[in-house]
Amino acid sequence: MTLSRTATRAEHCVIACAEAWRDAGEILAAPMGPVPSVGARLARRTFSPDLLLTDGEALLVGPDGTPEGWLPYRQHLALVTTGRRHVMMGASQIDRFGNQNISCIGDWAAPARQLLGVRGAPVNTLNNPTSYWIPRHSKRVFVERVDMVCGVGYDRAAEHPGTARFHHIPRVVSDLGVFDFATPDHSMRLASLHPGVTVEQVRAATGFELTVPDGVPFTREPTPAELRLIREVIDPGNSRDREVRT
């Protein structure tokens, strides 16, 4: 059976996530969610062969899940706190400076909705590169000000630079595009649009004023070899399309 050469929106999201680990060297990738996980495994199989992957418990694994080494919890923490891990987390809310909330909606003392809790977000963001994956881009997620800071953004990190030696937010990937903080004040910038998405759509779905450069490019297309890996080898069950709805 011949595979379609036309990439889906979900496959563009996979490529955008994979690019977060391009040429990363021997660091630990920690993807959270189906699309980032497919992206990390794709990066390992193609342009980042030294990338380390974990089963989330005690082993380093290859892109097919084959054990490659032992990673006890204490060693995992050593990687986390010395800048040698790049995690891609989710966000219930994220603001223009990259502050992230996964704890609660509303006032912390009497929240309208209780979420995951702070978890490891402060340690992640202050001690190793942290990107974000948001499968439903909306004003409920991209907000002017998060209700509670869990992951530390650039404005907060600047207030206490001594605690943020490894603080870096390489990118935010959503189902509409890719965003970074390559602006003078480290506020969020639209870096690329997924094919079929317009700048107006992104602005309408964002609760703050984005920096939008002239001539925003489209997220790159997967190569035929990458499409084959995504569809036939890494994610034949198509978990990516169940996470990204267009």
Automatic annotation (TrEMBL):
Record InterPro entries: CoA_trans_fam_I, NagB/RpiA_transferase-like
UniProt similarity note: Belongs to the 3-oxoacid CoA-transferase subunit B family.
Entry protein name: CoA-transferase
GO molecular function, one term: CoA-transferase activity
Organism: Streptomyces avermitilis
This protein's UniProt keywords: Transferase
Pfam name, any one: CoA_trans
